[in-house]
């Protein structure tokens, strides 16, 4: 019995609840009836652009189509409520400003938990970290570093709200992050906030709006002339966000342009770096290129790239990025009908980043299709389906 249906199953439920036939929904979403039928039956995975088109046709959010795949709703619900309270009281921090070194340690810990996809543990510390960072900034007389710390803390909060399928909370968090970035002139903070703001458009399937925002952010950041490794990481990350938005918008020209600029910047770094909750370098640029091939309908190229990357992930990449690599590899292999390869990629995703793999929409979609095809004949698939909440 399903406990938290994935996108394909939710599409069928939502369509029937509204009394809409497959022919009409397929026409409105600009896909074939055969493709829609396969998505609903579990023979094909619903890709992000297709989910966005169907959500628009059904007049629901993409989050409603994806559902809320929480393995432990009660615990996560309580922790999310604590985060909501902290975000709501953003100008009224409930804690005192700590010593600068203590705050730096707490911010580094939060960034590490985010990169390691330890979302539950991150939720437990975020309300305090947000309050401490804000209290310190308010007492700093407009210090740009202090307000940049607030932006970084909200970056961690956005990541966990986004990954746990809380779009309304994610939108509010981004507005708070933009507020913090505007408290003082700090181009890096502004860019980090824009990166997440574009992410909210990406999650909602508004790829064109997200592209417009990210291209404006790139222009503004370039005009600020921020140099050094930090400037490369931030600007490169903005271009990588552009790669995702453009590829999902099926804009091959913009995808190629953002990817070329990202690679040019990545060539200035010997390995990937994590700064301000942004990961950038040669390895991550390759991962985004692989994902773009999947979105642009070239799974053969994506699968070819994935094999050596999965055998030896580039140095500097955290579990959040390696886990996403494995999920994209699984998507590519499923599109090529390499079912065993897709399963192996998902198993690696669960091994590297179990919390993310359990709740990532595309990971769950690939898993749903594999489970439908094999039913209960493969123990590893059943174990992953249970962990993801797809089966009891």
List the helices and strands and how they pair.
Elements (H helix, E strand, L loop, with lengths): L6 H11 L4 H8 L3 H9 L6 H11 L3 H5 L6 H16 L11 H16 L3 H20 L5 H20 L3 H15 L5 H18 L2 H18 L3 H21 L3 H15 L6 E3 L2 E3 L1 H14 L3 H13 L7 H17 L3 H14 L1 H6 L1 H14 L4 H9 L5
Antiparallel strand pairs: 1-2
Helix pairs in contact: 1-4, 2-3, 2-4, 6-8, 7-8, 7-9, 8-9, 9-10, 9-11, 10-11, 11-12, 11-13, 12-13, 13-14, 13-15, 14-15, 15-16, 15-17, 16-17, 17-18, 17-20, 18-20, 20-21
Fold and architecture overview:
It contains 21 helices and 2 strands. The chain has 392 residues and is an all-alpha fold. Among the domains are: 1-67, lambda repressor-like DNA-binding domains (434 Repressor (Amino-terminal Domain)), CATH 1.10.260; 71-183, no CATH class. The chain has a two-stranded antiparallel sheet with strand order 1-2. A hairpin with a 2-residue loop joins strand 1 (273-275) and strand 2. It is globular and about 60 Å long. The model has no long low-confidence stretch (mean pLDDT 92).
């Amino acid at each position: 019995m399903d406990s938290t249906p994935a996108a394909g199953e939710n599409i069928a439920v939502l369509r029937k609840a509204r009394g809409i036939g497959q022919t009409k929904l397929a026409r409105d979403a600009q896909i074939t009836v055969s493709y829609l039928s396969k998505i609903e039956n579990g023979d094909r995975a619903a890709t992000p652009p297709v989910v966005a088109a169907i959500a628009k046709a059904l007049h629901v959010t993409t989050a409603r189509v994806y559902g809320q795949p929480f393995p432990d709703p009660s615990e996560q619900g309580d922790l999310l409520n604590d985060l909501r309270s902290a975000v709501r009281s953003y100008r009224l921090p409930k804690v005192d400003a700590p010593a600068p070194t203590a705050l730096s340690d707490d911010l580094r810990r939060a960034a590490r938990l985010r990169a390691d996809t330890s979302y539950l543990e991150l939720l437990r510390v975020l309300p305090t970290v947000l309050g401490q960072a804000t209290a310190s900034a308010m007492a700093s007389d407009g210090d740009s570093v202090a307000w940049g710390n607030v932006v970084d803390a909200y970056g961690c909060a956005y990541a966990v709200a986004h990954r746990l399928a809380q779009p309304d909370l994610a939108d509010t968090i981004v507005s708070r992050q933009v507020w913090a970035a505007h408290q003082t002139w700090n181009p890096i903070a502004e860019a980090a906030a824009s990166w997440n703001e574009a992410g909210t458009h990406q999650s909602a399937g508004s790829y064109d709006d997200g592209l417009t925002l990210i291209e404006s952010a790139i222009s503004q950041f370039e005009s600020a002339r921020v140099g050094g490794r930090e400037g490369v990481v931030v600007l490169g990350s903005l271009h990588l966000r552009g790669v995702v938005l453009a590829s999902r918008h099926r804009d091959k020209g913009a995808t190629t342009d953002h990817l070329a600029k990202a690679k040019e910047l990545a060539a200035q770094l010997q390995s990937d770096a994590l700064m301000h909750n942004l990961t950038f370098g040669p390895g991550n640029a390759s991962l985004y290129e692989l994902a773009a091939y999947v979105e642009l309908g070239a799974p053969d190229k994506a699968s070819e790239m994935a094999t050596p990357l999965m055998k030896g992930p580039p140095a500097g990449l955290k579990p959040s990025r390696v886990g996403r690599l494995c999920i994209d590899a699984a998507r590519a292999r499923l599109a090529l009908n390499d079912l065993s390869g897709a399963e192996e990629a998902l198993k690696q995703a669960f091994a590297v980043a179990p919390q993310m793999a359990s709740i990532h929409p595309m990971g769950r979609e690939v898993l749903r299709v594999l489970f439908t095809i094999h039913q209960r004949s493969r123990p590893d698939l059943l174990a992953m389906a249970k962990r993801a909440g797809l089966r009891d």
